């Protein structure tokens, strides 16, 4: 087991930081939701905070509005220990998303504003050189000018020995042209990225249900990805690299809220990867972190004992 840490920051995340208004009760659609509760949201920001909660050194590049919601988000993220040097407040309203509380796949409606205004200056070469992992999402890549700036930073990061990571969390509501996101995901794979994709993401991105997780893993590995993890909700996860793949079953947990479960999983996975664990053990660490998240409503505590995600190793 070889530790992969060694740079000032274990992870540098770039992309959406926004406000989630989650329905107070369980709802299958937004039509059914009668009231909402405010929560901090945004996949890269959630991941970044979860990495910090586990004791990793984490930095975030994101844009929020010069408004009360923007200040709320900035304060929330900083309290978890994330470095917010490259978090910028801009002259646009903070992005918000309406989300259904559910035990399955959430329904949502995004109102995108400030999150897409990430500037190239927020992802400087110096920060990329001092980061072990550079992570983003399809959501973050889904709108200009942030799209161009994040992709340029990803290429620079790869050129300077930084491991790329991408969550292929594609949704037509935020990026209508399906062919466009395919090209960006392919570009990340070509740069040797670690890829996280759910069965729902796959169906949204490629237009057909995923019948076999190994099919998705082989697809991304063939494009050049270094490591692929396919998450399948209550069915578990499949993780693969060039040496082969392995399935990890899910365990029964009382589900209180699935929002942010994927980001929790990926934080456990990447923490174990940084610590030098094998792919299947990274998935086990991810499973443990996801179980913590889905068994509670709202954010995780500001500090999580890292040893808890290694109980199954």
Describe it:
The protein is α/β, with parallel strands linked by helices. The protein has one domain (9-15, 42-92, 116-310): Ribokinase (UDP-N-acetylmuramoyl-L-alanine:D-glutamate ligase). It contains 9 helices and 13 strands. The strands form 2 sheets. A 9-stranded mixed sheet has the order 5-4-1-8-9-10-11-12-13, with helices on both faces. A 4-stranded mixed sheet has the order 3-2-6-7. A hairpin with a 5-residue loop joins strand 11 and strand 12. Helix 1 packs across helix 8 (261-274) and helix 8 (261-274) runs antiparallel to helix 9 (279-294).
Find the CATH superfamily.
Answer: Ribokinase
For the sheet with most strands, the description reads: 9 strands, mixed
Query: Can you tell me the CATH class?
Result: Alpha Beta
Q: What Rg, in angstroms, do the CA atoms define? A: 18 Å
Structural class: alpha/beta
Uncertain segments are none
Strand order of the largest sheet: 5-4-1-8-9-10-11-12-13
Q: End-to-end span in angstroms?
A: 13 Å
Kindly summarize this structure in a few lines.
This protein has 313 residues and is α/β, with parallel strands linked by helices.
